[in-house]
Amino acid sequence: MASYNFDTSERDQVARRESYKWILGHLSRNKIKFFIMVFGTLGTNVLRIIIPFLVGIMIDQAIIPRDEDELTFYTFLILILGVVRILLSYLTIYVTNSISWNSIRDIRVEFFTKLQDKPLEFHNRVRSGDLMALATNDMSQLGFMINPGIRLVSDAFIGLAVVIILAITIDPLFTLILTPFFILYLISIRNYNREMKPISQTFQQKWSLISRSAQDSITGVRVVRAFNGEEFEKKQFLEVVTDFKKTWYKQQMLVAKYWPLLIIYLTIGFSFIVGVWFVTEGLLTLGELVSINGMLLLLILPTFIISFAVGMLQGGLAGGERIFHTMNAYDAEEAIETTYLDWPKQIDGKIKFENVNFKYDGTEKYVLQNINLEIESGKTIALVGPTGSGKTTLTKLLSRFYNYEGIITLDGEDIQNFHLQDLRQNIGRVEQDIFLFASTIKENIMFGIGDRQVTQEEIVLTAKTAQAHDFISTQVDGYDTLLGERGVGLSGGQRQRLAIARCLLTDPKILILDDSTSAIDSETEERISLAMNEVMKNRTTLLITHRLSAIRKADKIVVLKDGSIKAIGKHDDLISTSKDYRRIFSKHIDLPPISEGGK
Questions:
Q1: Tens digits of per-residue pLDDT, 190-242?
Q2: From CA 410, how far away is CA 44, in angstroms rounded?
Q3: pLDDT: which is higher, 332 or 437
Q4: Do the domain assignments include residue 468?
């Protein structure tokens, strides 16, 4: 499968701003909580910085003059403000946590919903490992950005702003002398942020590669063991992890060379030396010097923490961009669903393909060409042809898994006028590649019925029809037996019988059986066929199989080759007239001589 390109370097600034607006939109959904978070963060930092400011005033107006009343007043004022700050900080952290959890929950649901709505073309191109990395690591990075990342970065910048404002009120000249340090401090943080941004984006992409490599190796463990590929997989995974380590090391080296902390220490040292001179010259009081240096000291911890917080911020923004880009990539399926009709209460199941052509996105070669086919209601059509002739693709177009050229109608109505959910709910599909969920047998059979309520008797009856009841009854917990991942523990035939039962329980008007009995022995197939004949009586059925016994029973046989229809007819006619049809069975049965004019 082709790797999906998540490289953000090629996206324009407009797309990046759109992702930022999307994140902000999630954060501000609850206006009251968002207001509390913003002003709580502002208030907490103002109160944090104002305490040393008041300590300086207390020194000048209470301690040096030995004024007990002033000392008592400022002592209680500082204590009260300290308690208020603690309570406000607690409220702000609580609300920020709430916003963070709610936002990530909503983003997870939105991401999952978007993936469910994506066309198959998207899932054909995107690796499941990449999607798992987005759903886990990138989502976690986004959560860390919201809390505590944003709060910690805000502490540093709001704190600096409050320090500058209060320092100006104390002594504008002294503040002006410190201004170059403040400017250098901001520039160093900006440069650090700029250097961290591409590293964070690369970090997320490398993590995605680890997730992809692990996912492929774990899901394909049986193939790895069968071909003695353990050492190759270990070597490949080691290369990916080593590559990731290089990016991680580069990130840590950037953190180690963190200049803002050094600058804030230099600022404090310079402020103390110059401040002492100002005090001796009478340009500054002792309390004012204590206030300014006390406020600067409170910037040390936020400045230290910001080295990690910027990493959280950039990691979250990079993760948010990747998630947003993926959710909005390849929305072709949604584009064709602009308007739709209400699903009719009763459908006959007559299907018609008119001049249908199809090619996969990004390719020039047509997989299906000039398909014209009419299927009467309640009839069974067998689609036959060599591998790659387009049989399965043709049935997938009926379910609108892909966009196509031409028209496909159901009871005379273009299927693109129907809601996708309505259309697919009335088409039952059983394929050779069976996927079963890691849940109970009963839940797997019931998957696909939506909100419709069914009884245990209906489930058992459906299982009996699919010849699955007998082996289900031998399981430890019967229908409540918990299956392994993808149905591990069941044979291929057992998995297919469960898939048939799952399809039948949805009671579809149209059946698509794509090699649905390929893993079933002849005796079981015969028993299923007898039951399926009853089920298929009033249903339009598209049958893809290589079993001649099933093909012969079809009302009509369609021969496909290289994406085109080569012949249509009954078995007895085609076996005498169609070279393409004869070629399919020439190795298995004795063929009669081809008729005059046979194609």
A1: 888 888 888 888 887 888 788 778 877 877 777 777 777 788 888 888 988 89
A2: 65
A3: 437
A4: no
CB 581 within 8 A of CB 559: yes
CA 360 to chain centre: 23
132-146, 456-470, 520-534: the lowest-pLDDT one:
520-534
Residues 228 and 375 in one domain: no
- pTM listed for this prediction: 0.68
Question: In one letter, which amino acid is 277?
Answer: W
* Interstrand relation of 413-414 and 540-544 (parallel, antiparallel or unpaired): unpaired
Q: Please count the CA atoms within 13 angstroms of the CA of 550 that sit on its side-chain side.
A: 28
Residue 148 in tokens: 């505590």
Confidence of residue 337 (pLDDT cuts 50, 70, 90): very low
CA distances from 343 to 379, 411, 416, 443, 466 (A): 22, 12, 12, 27, 28
Query: Whose structure tokens read 């989502």?
Result: 139
CATH number of the domain that 421 lies in? 3.40.50.300
β-pair type (380-384, 413-414): unpaired
Q: What is the dihedral of CA 464, 469, 470, 471, to 10 degrees?
A: 140
pLDDT band for 330, please (50, 70, 90 cuts): low
User: pLDDT category, 3, cuts 50, 70, 90?
Assistant: very low
CA 484/CA 438 separation, integer angstroms: 5
How many whole angstroms separate alpha carbon 38 and alpha carbon 342? 47
Return the DSSP state at 138.
I
The encoded tokens of residue 474 equal 């031998």
For residues 330 and 354, membership in a common domain is answered with: no
Find the mean pLDDT for residues 430-436: 82
Is the separation of the CB atoms in 145 and 315 below 8 Å?
A: yes
Taking CA atoms, 260 is separated from 48, 49, 188, 272, 320, in Å, by 20, 19, 6, 18, 27
Alpha helices in 343-491 (DSSP H): 391-398, 420-425, 441-446, 456-465, 469-473
Q: Looking at the structure, do residues 279 and 398 belong to the same domain, yes or no?
A: no
The 10s digit of each residue's pLDDT in 487-517 is 777 887 788 888 888 888 888 889 998 876 6
- Residue 435 Cα distances to 420, 483, 492, angstroms: 21, 12, 11
Cα(209)–Cα(221) distance, integer angstroms: 18
User: What pLDDT score was predicted for residue 534?
Assistant: 64
The b-or-e profile of 507-521 (16+ CB within 10 A means b, else e) is bbbbbbbbbbbbbbe
Residue type, 546: H
* Same domain (yes/no): 364, 250: no
What's the token pair of residue 315? 């990691």
Closest CA to 470 of 523, 541, 535: 523
Query: CA–CA separation, 372 vs 352, rounded Å?
Result: 8
Task: Indicate if 151 and 96 belong to the same structural domain.
Answer: yes
On whether both 104 and 171 belong to a single domain, the answer is: yes
SS (H, E, C) 173-239: HHHHHHHHHHHHHHHHHHHHHHHHHHHHHHHHHHHHHHHHHHHHHHHCHHHHHHCCCHHHHHHHHHH
User: Domain range for residue 362?
Assistant: 349-426+511-519+544-599
308 in Cβ contact with 150 (< 8 Å): no
Determine contact, residues 314/144, Cβ cutoff 8 Å: no
The answer on pLDDT for 587 being more than 80 is no
Burial of 527 (0-12, 13-18, 19+ CB in 10 A): middle
